[in-house]
Structures are given as C-alpha cells and as structure tokens.
What we know:
By secondary structure, this protein is α/β, with parallel strands linked by helices. It is built from eleven helices and 14 strands. The strands form two sheets. Strands 3-2-1-4-5-6-7 form a seven-stranded parallel sheet, with helices on both faces. The protein has a seven-stranded mixed sheet with strand order 10-11-9-8-12-13-14, sandwiched between helices. Strand 4 (90-94), helix 3 (99-107) and strand 5 (111-116) form a beta-alpha-beta unit. Helix 3 (99-107) runs parallel beside helix 4 and helix 8 packs across helix 10. The radius of gyration is 21 Å and the shape is globular. 43% of the residues are buried. The model has no long low-confidence stretch (mean pLDDT 94).
Amino acid sequence: MRKIAVFSVNAQYKIGGAESCIKVMVDHLSSSYDVTVISGSRSVYEGHEKHQYQNIETIQLFHSKHLNYFGNFVNFFLIRRHFRDNDYDLVIGNCSTCLGALISTINKNRKCIYYVHEEFSLNKNPKYNPPKTIIQKIRRITGLFLDWPFFYFHCIQNNKALMRSSAVIANSKFIEKELKKQNRISPFVIYPFTETDVPEAISGSFEEKYLTMVGNAKVKGVETFISLSRLMPEQKFRIIDRTLKSSHQEGNILYCPLFHDIEELYGSTSILLAPSIWNEAFGKVSVEAGARGVVPIVANRGGLPETVCSSDLVVEDYLNASEWKKRIEAILPNIHEWRKKSRLHAKKFNAKIDKANISSLVEKIFDEK
C-alpha cells in the first residue's frame, strides 16, 4: 500500500476549519492508502482538544510571539529535517507553514501536493491591527524590519513550492484567482470538505435565537459586530470564542466557548454574520450555517462571497456597522425564502464532491511517470 504523509502544522489540535478539513481528508484517504499525519507540537495549543488519528507523528516546533516569519524560518528547518530523514510516496502539505515538508520532498524528486488554505501563501504579510500609539508604531516598524529577511526567505521557498509541487490545490475560487495572478499556475479547486447533507436547523427548538459570529479577534471583525449590537439593542447577539471556558453576558452580547454540538450552535442562531477584516480564503462556517438553513451574511473579503447565494448577503462597506444593520433588516421580511436559497447554495460545497476530487487527483499523480 502506498504511503502518504499529510503535514499540517496544527493538524492534531481542534482549533479551526483548516484542521477539521485535514481530519476529514485523512479519514477519507486512509481507506485506500497508508496515511500518516505529521503535526507540529506547540505548547501554545496544548490546552486544546485534539483530533484522533490512527497514525500520527509530531515535530516539536518553535513559537515566536512577535516575529512570525522568524518563527517560521526556524520551523522550516525542523520540518525539513523530518522529511529529509523519512520517505513517503506522496506528501500533502497544508498551508504556508508546510514549506519545509514540500521543499525537502521536492529536493528528493518525490511527489507532493501543496494545499493552499490562507493568504500567507500569496506572499503577503498583512497587518490588520493598525498601531494607535507612538510606542505601538515604533514596535510595528521595528518588528517588520527585523522580520523582513525571514519573510523574504518565506517568499522564495513559497514560490519554489508553488512552481515545483506535483499539484497545487486552492481551497476556493478566490485563492485560485490569486495564485493564477501571482505565479501563473492553474491550481485544482477543492473546497474544505464540509458536510452539507444535513437536516435543517429546527426553528424554535432552542429557547434563544441569536445573531451569531464565530471568533473574537479583530481580524474576524469583532469591533464591527460589537458596534452593530449597539445599533440593534432589541436583538440578541452572540460571539463564539474558543479561548473561553464558560459563557458570560455583556449588554445584549452573549460570549460563549466553542460548541461541542454544532447542531445546537446553528439551531440557536437566527442569522450568522462573518464581518471579517482579513481576506478569508474561504468561509467554512458560513457554508455550515447555510446548509442548515441559517442565513449567512458576509463581508466582501477574500473567498467569503463564494459561500453565500446572493450578493444581497454580501456587505461591501464591511467596516460600517450601519450597513450590516441595513442588510439584516432587508432580509428579515423574507427570511424563510433566504433560508431555502442558502441551503440550496451550500449543496455545491458538499464534502462528497471534495472527497471524489482529492481521490482523483492523488490517483492521477501516482499514475504519472
């Protein structure tokens, strides 16, 4: 049986959509191949729950709080050493932190797939939290200066991986378009293995219905969400924050930890909001919501607009809370129709399609001489 290694720096941790995507993909490929998951071991995430894999190996990685690309530089060589010392018939690397795995495999003239899940694979170093004080500005400039050589190293290795991998997968049309523009390559589009053949969330099955967002970071648009809650004091709002251990209320916003029961999350949501500031590669949460008949409204950022059924559910002026309020109020009178449309649209991202596509791609690569 052919051996496949799937590397993702946080594969073992239950911390986000990319990790749940890898879990579904590995479980699927394991029915046909000998699959080993290679994950980073990172103290910063050790408090989180972990995915269970039949075959998993870990690499102890370095964590840099302020100089991200310096941390990635150190980890590049730690990861490269592992793949230099171990042979696989195919390596699948997830996200831009997998470059050590891909470059080592390329240097050995072996087959590899680069699965692009975020905008850091687009040779960009975005900073979405502008400094407000002189001290913060000095720290930002100093950090960028110190990190620049390591970011440059990242770009060189990233371009090599994109151009020389056996195949490149984009997890959205947005990423596909950007990679075509940047490297003049034509990646395969395989969405993030989202289960959309699910029952509709039952209206009224839970006591409360919330306008919900998932994530409590500035880059996720939490400041806009909080401003919106103040414009709509009669509505109940909810923020899902993975760092919380228990729920608490602030004004008309309920702050909750991650839900173990995803059906409870969406069953108690009236509308899902994704006011992200950064260019999300895709919107797995908005697809999950739409599949259950919960209407998602998203910012016009990255791949988020792909995940909704109409431009009426996309907010162009996404930093303006008043525009979110207008969009919500516009769809509420016909919410039942929007629920039907959202469920229908979500079907195109069904995990069955993605599983068939990844199987076909892996078979094609193995068939190539």
